[in-house]
Specification:
Blueprint: E1 21-29, H1 35-45, H2 60-64, E2 67-72, E3 75-80, H3 90-97, E4 107-116, H4 119-122, H5 131-139, E5 148-149, H6 159-171, E6 176-178, H7 192-197, H8 200-209, E7 214-217, H9 224-230, E8 239-241
Parallel strand pairs: 5-6, 6-7
Antiparallel strand pairs: 1-3, 1-4, 2-3, 7-8
Helix pairs in contact: 6-8
Length: about 250
């Protein structure tokens, strides 16, 4: 394959397919790099291309190439075939359209401005397990906003300290107390311990004001400690719990 490898990923006559993911990038080429070369590198490195010329490839590779197809000054649109992406895997998508392409020497500046996701891709994301209506039904709250808080600082409390802060938060009128995403299993707050200690605070809150309180805890799929803390053998995405384990399986 010739030195114009990256040019294969540029086609200003390309018409995006209905199921293509289309991204808008702002780019500034490095010195000595043309706009076409820079855009070709963006499309290549974020799809089936690489940093060197490849001479022998399966025929399917051609169909999987991203295409830089629409230029407007330093803006370019790149279309990606749906087949490049795993259903329901946002991390994989971001690693492609917002990953190592930002480290390419051929670009002085690069920004992902927008991404248009087709219905065929979005169907892989089922949305919240309960939804707002389900949470209101669970809580028995109508006619007012649901309130929640994350105890601060987000990390550093022991299980007992965290439970005490949660209790005060519930007694202050909040419906939910949520773990921070940075809070995992640490030496000062092992995952197994919060599962036991946090059971008490919501129960005490209900006994005091006859109102349902809920803690929102994270669960890491496949983590044995998390599963014991949740009293659940299956992976969960989100757990809404009072003194029972409510899991969104």
């Amino acid at each position: 394959m010739a030195i114009d490898w990256y040019n294969e990923f540029v086609d200003t006559n390309y018409e995006p397919a209905k199921d293509d993911i289309v991204c808008l990038f702002y780019f500034e080429p490095a010195a000595g790099i043309t706009d076409k070369e820079a855009a070709g590198r963006i499309a290549s490195e974020s799809s089936t291309g690489t940093w060197t010329t490849l001479a022998t490839l399966p025929p399917r590779m051609k169909k999987l190439e991203a295409k830089a197809f629409d230029f407007d000054g330093h803006f370019v649109k790149v279309a990606y075939p749906l087949a490049l992406w795993e259903e329901g895997n946002a991390v994989q998508l971001m690693s492609g359209i917002a990953g190592n392409i930002f480290g390419m020497k051929a670009l002085r500046n690069l920004r992902l401005v927008d991404a248009s996701l087709p219905a065929a891709y979005l169907k892989g994301f089922k949305g919240p397990h309960f939804g707002m209506e389900g949470i209101r039904k669970m809580m028995g709250i109508r006619g007012r906003p649901l309130t929640g808080a994350v105890p601060k600082p987000k990390i550093g409390f022991s299980a007992k300290e965290h439970a005490e802060v949660g209790y005060e938060t519930w007694m202050g009128g909040f419906d939910f107390v949520k773990d921070d995403e940075n809070l995992t299993s640490t030496s000062f707050k092992p995952v197994r311990r919060p599962g036991k200690v946090h059971d008490k605070a919501p129960r005490q809150g209900r006994e005091r004001d006859r109102r349902e309180e809920v803690g929102v805890l994270k669960h890491h799929r496949g983590c044995r400690d998390d599963e014991e803390a949740c009293r659940s053998a299956r992976g969960v995405r989100l757990e809404l719990r009072d003194d029972r384990c409510r899991s969104g399986r």
